[in-house]
Design brief:
two-stranded antiparallel sheet, globular
Length: 254
């Protein structure tokens, strides 16, 4: 067999390895799976396979992340972040039809520069906490931003991570909220691209096969997460945000 899921075997197995790595990082800090996947996939996969490939692994692992501690904590997390979720879902559907029309350089820079600056300032000890009276507006605004990026790139995590770091949620709550938002956003992305025709045929099979390494990596990463205290968890989250932002900027420049 020369191909698997419409791709050369070497390319397919490289994608499996990338997904395993992305799953491990997600298991450890709760996010970064689609960012790692789309960043590395774009170097050796056609754009339509790169975006389609992350959809089902992202959805399935976020279902697990959301309900890892049970149904009730998941429901409480969902209600607490409801405004962010609504804005994200609405704007995923708004932006998804334009996925092929928006210049790659533009949205990579618009996402990468502010993420890098924010995380670097946080890491330097600057307090960028959201004040209580501004919390509702921040939820709507950052949720809309997450949805706009999510629909065209499959990446909607950084605005949420910025929001959670600004409110300094405990590690377990932070990860659970990420799971809720990412799960709902991933389902919206799935529905949006079922209508655009992106997730069909070989691309659908490719995405489904990537669920296996995604889960394997996530289970390994969760063992690491359980050993992190709040301070180390926050530090690693900031480090990965900086790395994410710099990689997006690098892709835009190159």
């Amino acid at each position: 067999m020369d191909q698997i899921a419409g791709l050369p075997q070497a390319v397919f197995w490289a994608a499996m390895g990338v997904t395993l790595l992305a799953g491990m990082v997600k298991g450890a800090i709760g996010f970064a799976m689609p960012i790692i996947m789309i960043s590395l996939f774009s170097s050796f996969l056609p754009p339509e396979f790169a975006l389609a490939g992350l959809i089902l692994p992202t959805l399935s692992t976020n279902i697990h992340q959301t309900f890892r501690d049970g149904l009730r904590p998941a429901k409480e997390a969902a209600w607490g972040i409801r405004r962010f979720v609504i804005a994200t879902v609405v704007f995923i559907f708004v932006s998804a039809p334009f996925a092929d029309d928006i210049p790659q350089v533009g949205f990579l820079l618009l996402l990468g520069v502010p993420i890098t600056l924010y995380a670097a300032l946080q890491l330097s000890g600057r307090s960028l906490a959201i004040r209580t009276e501004h919390q509702r507006g921040a939820e709507w605004g950052l949720g809309a931003l997450a949805g706009l990026y999510g629909g065209v790139s499959g990446i909607w995590g950084p605005p949420l991570i910025i929001y959670l770091l600004s409110l300094d949620y405990p590690k377990a709550v932070n990860v659970r909220i990420q799971g809720v938002v990412f799960m709902i956003g991933a389902f919206a992305l799935l529905c949006a691209h079922l209508t655009t025709g992106l997730l069909t045929g070989d691309r659908l099979l490719f995405s489904a096969l990537l669920i296996v390494p995604a889960f394997g990596g996530m289970l390994l990463g969760q063992r690491l997460q359980d050993g992190l205290d709040q301070k180390k968890f926050r530090w690693w989250t900031q480090i990965f945000l900086i790395g994410t932002g710099l990689n997006l900027i690098r892709q835009a420049i190159m």
